[in-house]
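[step 3/7] fold_predict: job queued, chain A
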Amino acid sequence: MFVKIFTPKNTKRVLYLFLLVGVLLTIFWNFPFNFKVGENDGYIKKFAIFNNTNLYTGIASGTSVVYFLALKFLNFFLNNINNSFFLLNLISQIAFIFIGVKLFNKEKSKESKIIYASVLSLFLVKGFQMKAYSGSSNDYLLSVFILWILYEIVKSRKNVISDIKIGVLMAISLSIRKSFILFFPLFFILVFEQYKLKNYIKTGVSFLLILLVFHFPAIIENHTLSFYSKEPNSTTYNWITRNYLGLKRIFEEGLAFSSGSVWSYSWAMVEEYIQTGKFIPKSLTSVIANDPAVFIKAFVYNVGRNLVWTLRFSGIIAIVPFFYKIKLFNKYLVAYFSFLMIISAVGFTVTEFRWFWGYDILMFLGGYMYLKSIKEKQLKFLIISISLITVLLFNVRTIISLL
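[step 4/7] structure written:
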């Protein structure tokens, strides 16, 4: 009897309420609108140096190659570093939303239009909250290329152009941020059924050729690829060391599991700890081998944190397949939860949700494909209505906290 109230008409009412709150949330999230870009991980300072250096030397020194090249291009016309960052990341957010909609349209079904509109609305509300223009991070530009790659994969055009294009886009993505390496296992999950050896060869060759073009100076000078590094100038410790000590203190002192708690363990505190001569890890494998309890706790905490985040923005559409008709679990959901587990492990800190940009569309797309596969119509409307309401409840709290 309860399920019967979830009809297309009632679900449409829930959707309208969701869109109303979504608009309010977008306004509050982006208010006050500020053209000033905040410094994030030293990108602005690093780009100022890159911008005044010849390209060969700048790339050889280690940088976010494509991100800084795009910034340099914009700055040539704007002659203002702040405005260049602002415009590039704003364009990235717009492109993110545009490509995301196109991606959804590739899987759009004539049936259950309300279901499609609801899932797309979940994606759009989240996309409008990115607030990319306010930061100097390259995560947003990377998210655009991740979506573009996913779009090419979903199109499933089995021809030379498509294979080459995917390889080129992957090379560009890796030339934006080193963390794109985490996409590779997802790539194999997503193309496993449609790729043959010849497809892998064409994609692989185009990937390597474009990678060589972008990283040529670093390869010649340093025999490595050019990546932006935030590592301290030390041979004794690195970010793994700092994250390990920050996480260890969180668990020992019962501090909040948050980025702030990790960051509060400063480099000065790391140097002070080193004087004690105790265990000083410099790699994740070293942590696992010598103090696995810290790694396991961080992994479990991050998995829980990321699952709550999944509920906050997609409701239950990505979670339900674990409990009902798991045989309908599709490759998009497999890829999304694979990424969730990978980032929870290798990040070895408190995960930041900007690391999910681009990848997050997989939970919406996978949820939609799952709903399309369910034959019970009223059950579909039940799942999507609960998802919309769940996201509403999570984010109304956000609106209230911003008042």
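[step 5/7] annotate
The mean pLDDT is 92.
The two ends are 39 Å apart (CA to CA).
exit 0
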